[in-house]
Amino acid sequence: MPGPAPREGIEQRAEFQLFLRQRGIRSNAVLKALELVPRSLFVPEHLLEHTYADRPLPIACGQTISQPYMVAYMTEQLQLEGSQKVLEIGTGTGYQTAVLAHLARRVYTLDRYRTLVTAAEARFQVLRLANITAMPGDGTQGWAAQAPFDRIIVTAAADDVPRALTDQLAEGGILLIPVGPQIGEQRLMKIEKAPGGALSEKVLMPVRFVPLVAGRAASL
Predict the structure, then answer these.
(1) Taking the mean position of all CA atoms in its chain, how far away is CA 169?
(2) pLDDT by 10s per residue, the chain, length 220
(3) Domain range summary for the chain, segments of one domain joined by +
(4) Which residues, 6 or more positions from 119, have their beta carbon under 8 angstroms from its beta carbon?
(5) Which candidate in 27, 66, 200, 219 is catalytic?
(6) Contact yes or no for 56/93 (Cβ under 8 A)
(7) Nearest-angstrom CA–CA distance, 59 and 43
């Protein structure tokens, strides 16, 4: 089971929880998971004063850590109940991964950048999150060896929904993915696979994410 998180300012945490509720986050389980994960552990040291600012923050390798509301919203949309196996595309600092680990049975996470994966794994160890498996890889190809997945969450924008991800989604599963060009309109899509394999799509909101890049994992 995940271990306890280091404590952050009680007042700061209370304001964060109130903000999320005011923005429409209703799941007590999601709010509790966010409370258990110290966001400051995942934010670059020179940006700590902006830890709970509701905007993306730059991290290593030209990537970003998503704004807190987006993490909460996407997590809530996954409708996790504790028994699901989740694939995350875009580990980044590991903040979203750590939140998922408190809500899912198992989390598999991929990132193109080995540097980010290694740093994230160190943070998972600090938090004693033993239900996460991470590796560098091409997110557009998913993780076939561990498929099928009950839930898939992508934290980078694809021009189109990768076929590998819908193929690796279990029947009854949910895939969340931003879709759209790097410059132009992006939409957060919720894709559900019905028994029998039929897919249904729903546009949730306009978003702005870094691009999902296909190809071999970067050596950085």
Answers:
(1) 16
(2) 344 444 456 677 788 899 999 999 999 999 999 999 999 999 999 999 888 888 999 999 989 999 999 999 999 999 999 999 999 999 999 999 999 999 999 999 999 999 999 999 999 999 999 999 999 999 999 999 999 999 999 999 999 999 999 999 999 999 999 999 988 899 999 999 999 999 999 999 999 999 998 877 666 6
(3) 10-207
(4) 60, 93, 94
(5) 66
(6) no
(7) 8
Residue 50 CA to residue 79 CA, distance in Å, equals 28
Q: Give 6's DSSP letter.
A: P
User: Which CATH class name applies to 10-207?
Assistant: alpha beta
pTM above 0.90, yes or no: yes
Per-residue tokens: 186? 């992006």
- The answer to whether 66 is a known catalytic residue is yes
Structure tokens at 78: 């996954």
